[in-house]
Structure formats: structure tokens, C-alpha cells
Amino acid sequence: MECVILAAGEGTRMRPLTADRPKVMLPLVNRPMLEHLVCAVRDAGITAIVLVVGYGEREVRAWFGDGSRFGVSIRYVTQRHQLGTGDALMATKGLTTGRFLMLNGDMIVESDDLATLCRTDAPCMGVHESDHPQDYGVVTLDGDLITGLEEKSKHPRSTWINAGVYLFDQEIYARTEGISLSGRGEYELTDALEGYIREGRLRAHPLGTWMDVGSPWDLLDANATLLAGMGEVREGVVEEGVVVHGKLVLGKNSVVKAGTYIEGDCIIGEGCTVGPHAYLRGSTTIGDSCHIGHSVEVKNSIIFAETKVPHFNYLGDSVVGSHCNFGAGTKVANLRHDHGIVKVNGRSTGRKKFGAIIGDHVLFGINCSVNVGSVIGSYSLIGPHSLVEGTLQDRTVIR
């Protein structure tokens, strides 16, 4: 069998983190999101993969190559214009034979679920129960038969959602060729599935583990889940006087200096310096070549490669891009005074604790304060003693 993975989208909801990289290359536990999916497909017994690429395709091709590094064979097809999932599927026509899996590239799924799905008859859709189904395509069921599919209904008729996991055979191409542009200006795969539903042929396969990674705060949940499933490996140096509770994954050529207190689960990449007297709280991921310095506290955050948080800083429940630098005393708040749900650009995160989304190459002066739910665009310069609230566009300068 082959597996088609849709990895062409920019991920506008992930801005500014996707300004210089496609969404599928955002890191989770220091590996691109897409790598976790490729490995799950491989572990399900499928080694022939077709990646549909587009935005940022050079980075995807450079990382995955022909797939041999990951024990699979990868072919690529470019979706020139992002015109929907139906258009992405049609780009793979002639590259699959017989039955094949098709997966959205922005999710976490278990290999056991994929292996079980492969043993069913096509067509079949992976479904998952959600406590906020209004944000997804809602599926109605009669046993394992799908009887209805509606996109992002304000009044969902079910808690089951379309998980973006499919088992198809070659018939799907003919059905997709016949669909028209939707009101959103896209060729929607769901339009092709309506025929199967009317004929009583589309079956549902409940997924035991599934996580959507469509928004920046979803990265924190997925990161915590993946960290919890990792084994402990320490390839760097942990000096005397360091206290570690819970799981620590420490990369090569990294040093954790004396006086540092770590509450796992945490992962520290290669070539990092942490401490002295730093405080890392779970579930935190620190990318390669980072510096987390004296009296710095980091909690439940993802810090991309080559970022420096060196002196008397606090960073909680946040996602920070690469090549950033925090001036001494700069802090990111992560809790509203009224303990209400944090919103970002008017969108609910569903979280009472969420800090900021900070793009790449952001430089802070000393003693800056970043309020909850803030978004700071890439290449921004934040002057000393500044208060940051709301959303700053890329290359904003605050003096």
C-alpha cells in the first residue's frame, strides 16, 4: 500500500511561526510535525509515501529527501495552488495503485490505528470524538456507517468529527474529478464523499489517539503528549548540584549547569547551555543551540532552535520561534487576573493559561512585559521597558 500525506498548506492560523517554514515543519519535541506522521505510517507497515507539497516545499524536500533516512520511500508532487483537499488528492493521480491511505499532514495519530484501518474495506474514514465538534467537520453515524457530514456547524448533530484520515481505492479519483469549486473557492474532498454517503458505502473507523495541530496552542498539547511517550536519554552533561524530577531528554554537547531544577517531562536539544540556577517545568521543549540562563524559569513552552533566554526571565505556556533574544528581566505573562479563558486575536485558546506566540528573530530589550494572548511578528524589535499587548505584525519596531 501507499500513503498520501497532504503537506502543501502554509498554515495561516499558525502565523507568525509559519512566516519562514511550512506548518508541517513546525517542531514537536524537536522534530518536525510531519516526521512524527511519516514514522507512524512506517510503523503501521507502509513504506511507500507520496507527499503533496507546496508552500515551503524546499524545506520539506531537504529534510525528508527520498525517505531512506526514515526507512521509507518518498515521492513528491507539488500542488501549485492551494485549491483544497480535492485538488491536492487529484495531484497524486497516477502515483498510487489500488488501496491507499490519505492523511492530513497537521495531526498526531498512532501507528496501531493506521494499521487497523488498513485492514478494513475502502472507502473508510477515520473519526474521533471531540468536546468541541463545531470546529471540525461533524460526522453522523448509524453503527459504523456514516450517514452525514457537515462542515463546522454551529449546532453540531454529533460529537464525532472527521479526523482527516482516509482509506481509499482508485475509484476516489473519478469521484473527485466531478466536483465543482465550493463557496470558499476550493475543491472540497467532502463533496466527493457525499456520493459514498448517499450510497451507504462510507464506513467510519474510530481512532483511539488523534490530535489536531491547527493552532499554535495545539502545539503545546501535542508536544506534552509526545514528551510523555518518550524514553529518557541523556547524551549531554548534567553537572553536580542539578535536581531532576521526572523525565529528561538531553541532547549531545548540551550542558545543564549547577543549581538548575528540572521538573520533567522536558527535552533539551543538542548544543544547549542551561543554567546555572535555571528552573524548567514540564512540559517544555528547548531546541538545538539554545541558551537558558541564570534565574530563568520556563514552563510548558516550546522554544525553537538558537534562541536565547539568558537572564532573569519568565516564559510560561508559550511558543517562541528561532533566533530570538530576551533581554534581562523580560517576562511573558500566562494567566489573566480574572482567570478567564485566554483569547488570541479574538480566537479562544480554550486555555486558562496561555502566554504568547513569538515569531523568529524577535529581539527584546531589558525588562519588557508581554501580556497574555500576545502575538509578536517575526523580525520585530522591542525596546527596553516596553509593554506588549495584542498582535504585532512582522518587523514591528517599538522604541
From TrEMBL:
Gene3D superfamilies referenced in this protein's UniProt entry, alphabetically: Hexapeptide repeat proteins, Spore Coat Polysaccharide Biosynthesis Protein SpsA, Chain A
Residues covered by the Nucleotidyl transferase domain: 4-227
Pathway(s): Nucleotide-sugar biosynthesis; UDP-N-acetyl-alpha-D-glucosamine biosynthesis; UDP-N-acetyl-alpha-D-glucosamine from N-acetyl-alpha-D-glucosamine 1-phosphate: step 1/1; Nucleotide-sugar biosynthesis; UDP-N-acetyl-alpha-D-glucosamine biosynthesis; N-acetyl-alpha-D-glucosamine 1-phosphate from alpha-D-glucosamine 6-phosphate (route II): step 2/2
Residue ranges of every copy of the Mannose-1-phosphate guanyltransferase C-terminal domain listed in the record: 262-375
Matches recorded under Pfam families: GMPPB_C, NTP_transferase
Record keywords: Acyltransferase, Multifunctional enzyme, Nucleotidyltransferase, Transferase
Enzyme class: transferase
Enzyme Commission no: 2.3.1.157, 2.7.7.23
Molecular function (Gene Ontology), one example: glucosamine-1-phosphate N-acetyltransferase activity
InterPro entries with a match to the protein in the record: Bifunctiontional_GlmU_arc-type (IPR023915), GlmU-like (IPR050065), GMPPB_C (IPR056729), NTP_transferase_dom (IPR005835), Nucleotide-diphossugar_trans (IPR029044), Trimer_LpxA-like_sf (IPR011004)
Biological processes annotated in GO: UDP-N-acetylglucosamine biosynthetic process
Family indicated by similarity: In the C-terminal section; belongs to the transferase hexapeptide repeat family.
Protein name as it appears in the record: Bifunctional protein GlmU
Naturally occurring in which organism (per UniProt): Methanofollis formosanus
